[in-house]
Amino acid sequence: MLAGTARPRTPVAVVELVTLTPRGARSGLEAFLDEAAATTFGPDDVVFVVGHEPRIPQLVEAMTSTREPPLRNGEAVCVRAPSVDDLRAGKGVLEWRGP
After folding, report:
1. Model pTM?
2. Read out DSSP for the chain?
3. Comparing C-alpha atoms, which of 20, 44, 22 is closest to residue 33?
4. Band (97; pLDDT cuts 50, 70, 90)
């Protein structure tokens, strides 16, 4: 529906992470961050993660140290943190959630 209406200012790299798939041998925040660290992104980069229940809410809980209600279909969340270390420590902040 939005195709062709919004263009990123810089090229966008799409990286598939096994830790977000239902059959991923490893799951959880540490596995996700370890696998994501194997890709190249910097401290000011925005990382957009697409996934499903229960992996995404589990990651949000680990990153923010707060439990949120289950995601509805098509719902998104935004978590912000000054650093990956803050995410590891559960110090991320849930900025928003919604469709």
Report:
1. 0.72
2. --TTT---SS-------GGGSTT-S--SHHHHHHHHHTS---TT--------TTHHHHHHHHHHS---PPPPTT-EEEEE-SSHHHHHTT--EEEEEE-
3. 20
4. confident
Q: Which amino acid is at 83?
A: S
Token duo for residue 60: 């949000």
User: Smallest Cα–Cα separation from 83: which of 63, 61, 58, 66?
Assistant: 63
* Radius of gyration (C-alpha) of the chain in whole angstroms: 14
Query: Distance (Å, rounded) from C-alpha 19 to C-alpha 55?
Result: 9
Q: Are 49 and 56 in contact (CB under 8 A)?
A: yes
